[in-house]
Each structure stands twice: as C-alpha cells, then as structure tokens.
Amino acid sequence: MATADVIVVGAGIIGAACAWQLAQQGCRVQLVDDRRPGATAAGMGHLVCMDDNPAELALSAYSLRLWRAVVERMPQDCAWRGCGTLWIAEHQDEMAIAALKQQRMAASGVPSEMLTATQVAALEPMLRNGLAGGLRVASDGIVYAPNVARWLIADAAERVSICHDRAVALDKHAVQLESGKKLTAAVVVLACGLQAEQLLPQPLLRAKKGHLAITDRYPPRVKHQLVELGYGASAHAGSGTSVAFNVQPRPTGQLLIGSSRQFGSLDPAIDMPLLAAMLARAKNFLPDLAQMNIIRCWSGFRAATVDGLPLLGPHPQHSWLWLALGHEGLGVTTALGSAALIGAQIHNHRVEIDDRPYRADRLFAVEEPTI
Predict the structure, then answer these.
(1) In 3D, which of 198, 172, 197 has the Cα closest to residue 184?
(2) Whole-number mean pLDDT of the chain?
C-alpha cells in the first residue's frame, strides 16, 4: 500500500520546496531526510538573479517572482531582507559587462540601475576608492535558508510528513530506508543533492567545494549584497580552483564572506591557502575587513552538473522517478521555481517557463540506431 502520493528524498531547500509545492497541489507527501547537514546549511542563502546564460536567467527570474509572493509570510527567524545586490565593476572595462547584464535582466522583467563610481561610493562607503561603478538590482535579497526550509515544511504540515531515516536504495515506486523500512508511492522525487549519486546507477553530479567565513557582530556598515562582476566566471568554471568577492550583510550585524570553488575534493577540512586567497579578494574590495574578527569558517559541497544547469524533470529511464538536483550555488534562489516546474510536470500541467534546458534526458547518452 502506498504511504503517500509522492515521496521526496531530501529536506534541504529544494526538497522542502518540492514538498511544499506538491502539498499546495493536493498531494500527500512523505519527506525522507537523514538530518545530515547539506548544501542548504552550508550556503549563503542569497536570492539573486543570475544571468550568465539564458536558461539560468529564466529560472532565477521566475523563481524570484515566486519568492516575492511568499517572503512577507515567513517568520522572523527566516531572516528575509530585501537588501538588493550591488554588482561591482572593479575596472572601467567591466562597466560594459554591467550594461550587458542590465539589458539581459530587463528582457526578463528584472529592473536594475547602472551606477557611477561616485554613486557606488555614496551607497557603500566601506568599499575601497578607485572602483569603476556598478549595477544595482534592488529586487534581490537574502534569507537564512535552513529556517526557510523548515518553514516550508511546517507551512504544508497538513499534507507533508517527514521520516528521519536514510534512503539507501530505489526500487520501482519505492524507497528503501536504512532502518529496513520500505516506502512506496506513485512518484519519487530525488532532491538530496550529492547523496543522489549513491541512489542512481549513472553518475550525474560532481562536487564543487566552497568556503565561507563570517565576522563578529558590528554596527551595520554594508547595506547591499556585494558581488564582483567577475563572479559569474568563477561560479561557472568547469575546472580548476577560483575565488570571487561576495559579501552579505546579515541581520545580526555580521558580514558573511565568500566565495570559493574547488573541484576534485570531498575533504571537508578547510583549505587554508584557498581560504586566505578568498579573504584577500574580499579585503581588496573592503579594506576594513582586515580590522574585523572572523569568528567562524566552514566548507560545503555544491552538487553540480557538467553543463551548470540543474536537473529538473522525469528520469528518462524510470517514469515514476523525478530529479530535482544539481543546483550548485543557486539552490535557494531557484528553489521555488524548480519546485513549480516539478509540480507542473508531475501533474501534466502547463509549465510557466520553457523547462527543456533543465530536463534530465540531456545528460543521458543517446544510443546510435543500428543498421
């Protein structure tokens, strides 16, 4: 006998959003989560429109529209702040990148404002002198993602139940748990990040290790999320190690400092030279960081696909299995949009944006017909 209409494996921000969305559509949802911290607990919690390729822009802009419809309902501990993002042009030639970003976002209905160096300095006096200017996206924001995930589950509590156990295998319409219990449903949604690699026969994801640091509490001096315009190149690098300037003002008065990307490591230990390079990059833009106390540093692992886009849709070899995986560092931003696409696909409803770029079948080899 089926235990629910849908089983969702993973209760991070993607799994919680999928469960919430499916509950809104009338489904009985069984969430399976082993309580191990994942990318949701390790990440920055930004709601930021990204435009490094058309599919990324379409999904992030769509998802941010959905977020704006619910953020005012979230409790205070979700730490929603509509601080906006200030994209920083370090050199004059990056102002052309800012202008192109503005055009692309405008085409997707996302307003932004080009700023001169003087305007940037007036808005964010903690930034160093000599920057070229920037682009302000006022509709972006930040949240505390672990509490948002918990709120989404609680908001749908009438139709969502959670099982704290570890999924160890998949069967047709079923999830085998470490405890020996077997859950069954018409549909199974995998939303458990890198853990999905242990459940799927074909590897689809790879880990991108990242580092973050957070300061002690200080009187607020940064108003916006600050990101260098070169961040996209770092975020979407297909190999190697990179750092980029990304600083968030947290509601606590702390500054959350990122970011780094590193392939080929599953060691959670802090890479001290890489952390030092990341902090040096941040200090290049915010020199006064050198006078602030860093109270904690940590690492985490983003689940990435080979083409940098998430997997959202049915598994091409199993009609009962849906994938909601591979969001890298945009899981919080794209959670509600991803869940809306999954919900529409499962119920065979019309999707609001073209979902073909995210379909899982793109990563499965097509067999050549025999002659």
Answers:
(1) 172
(2) 94
Written as six digits, the tokens of 99 are: 């202008």
Residue 209, CA atoms < 13 Å, CB-side half-sphere: 16
With vertex at residue 162, the alpha carbon angle to CA 25 and CA 266, rounded to the nearest 5 degrees, is 105
Which residues partner with 311 through β-bridges?
A: 325
Which residue, among 168, 161, 181, has the nearest Cα to 31 in the 3D structure?
Answer: 161
Which residues are CB-contacts of 76 (< 8 A; sequence separation ≥ 6)? Answer: none
Q: Say how many C-beta atoms besides its own lie within 10 A of residue 73's C-beta.
A: 10
Tell me how far apart the alpha carbons of residues 177 and 169 are, in angstroms, rounded to a whole number.
7
> What is the pLDDT at residue 370?
41
pTM over 0.85: yes
Specify the residue for token string 């802009």: 61
The pLDDT value given to residue 239: 65
Q: CA–CA separation, 68 vs 82, rounded Å?
A: 10
> What is the tens place of the pLDDT at every residue in 192-205?
999 999 999 889 99
For residue 230, which amino acid is it?
A: G
